[in-house]
Amino acid sequence: MSSALLYAIAGVLLFAAGAAGVVMLDHLLRRVLAFNIMGSGACLVLVGLAQRSGIPDPVPQAMVLTGIVVAVAATGLALALIRRLHAQTGRVDGKGEEGRDKGETVAGLTLPVPQAVAGQGRDD
Amino acid sequence: MKRLAVLTAAAAFAALLIGALLDLPAATLDLRPLLAEAMPVSGVAHPVTAVLLNTRGYDTLLEIAVLLVALLGVVVASARADVTGDPGRTLAPPVATSADPMVSALARLVTPLAVIFAIYVLWAGAHRPGGAFQAAAILAAALVLLHFARIVPACAAPSRGLRIAAVAGFAIFLAIAALPLAGGALLQYPPAAAGLLILAIESGLTVSLALVLAGLFLLLADDPGGRR
């Protein structure tokens, strides 16, 4: 087994861990992090597989470079959307209203619920 | 229960994929000889830069567009409900606490060096690892550091100048990409001028990408009331 293949296998493990995180975690911030781990795993598979014959292939490397930049942009957008969701509803988990009624929270990361819901201007 | 099911599925997926990786046949399509053939006319000496800006320039062009769309999304999502109109102003909320003197000193020391390093990385992209994206990341990091030092304020909406500068890189790239349309295809640079054109594209991209990347951070840093 070459070291390049080892990178690809590490990438698969990262991708699987990230995918499990996206499904399992409720907190949106954690979900975004898990999604990023998935992306890193995919990049690692691409770069690792591309050089398993020993000589690196510049085409997948350039694709991964492109992918990293897009992932950063997507993460920024996701964070902005999460912040907007929190500002408007006070929620930072991916559950619907019915899930919220059960009172499940993710320890440590749940932000305080603001007094107001939608349709109210800022008062500070 | 759900946790167990998800973990089992993920482990099974990983095992299956690793098994597939281990007996993957050799690639049927090898792009390396093709690229090596094209290198002399690509205008640069580093293969990754040649792929990014010449042979697969289309991907990079669209990637910049994706970045701009993401920035637009962040601007829209960060827009405040109580602010109507006047999108051109940058909002610098009065900061009561001053920055840590260590951070200020570090930012003032590091920023000029970061600018020089970014220019070097941009220039080096033609013949060794480097290029517009790396240079832009360094510049963006310097901008974020300046923000931590309270020198660059967070902004609620980018001003007109900033918006133009953020789009300029894409516009330059698009113009140069469209230039050969008269006699050939999109992005088909004349080999004699390819090196110069790529440098022009990369210079524009460095500034714009740095602003976009830093903008993603600074727009998010302007917190209208996320934490109350």
What fraction of residues of chain B sit in β-strands? under 5%
CATH class assignment of chain A: Mainly Alpha
Helical/strand content category of chain A: mainly alpha
Helix content of chain A: 55-70%
Number of domains of chain A: 1
The biggest sheet of chain A amounts to: none
Question: N-to-C terminal Cα separation of chain B, in Å?
Answer: 35 Å
| Distance, first to last CA of chain A | 61 Å
| Structural class label of chain B | mainly alpha
How many domains would you count in the coordinates of chain B? 1
CATH topology name of chain A, in short, is Helix Hairpins
What average pLDDT do the residues of chain B reach?
Answer: 83
- Backbone shape of chain B: globular
Summarize it:
The complex is a heterodimer of chains A (124) and B (228). Chain A has helices at residues 3-24, 28-50, 58-89, 97-101.
Describe the structure in your own words.
The complex is a heterodimer of chains A (124) and B (228). Chain A is mainly alpha-helical. Chain A has a single domain (3-101), classed as Orthogonal Bundle (Helix Hairpins), CATH 1.10.287.3510. Helix content of chain A is 66%, strand content 0%. Chain A has helices at residues 3-24, 28-50, 58-89, 97-101. In chain A, helix 1 runs antiparallel to helix 2 (28-50) and helix 2 (28-50) packs antiparallel against helix 3 (58-89). The longest helix of chain A is centred in the middle third of the chain and has 32 residues, at 58-89. Mean pLDDT of chain A is 79; it is low at 101-124. Helices cover 66% and strands 0% of the residues of chain B. Chain B has one domain. Chain B has helices at 2-22, 32-42, 47-55, 57-78, 101-124, 132-148, 160-178, 194-221.
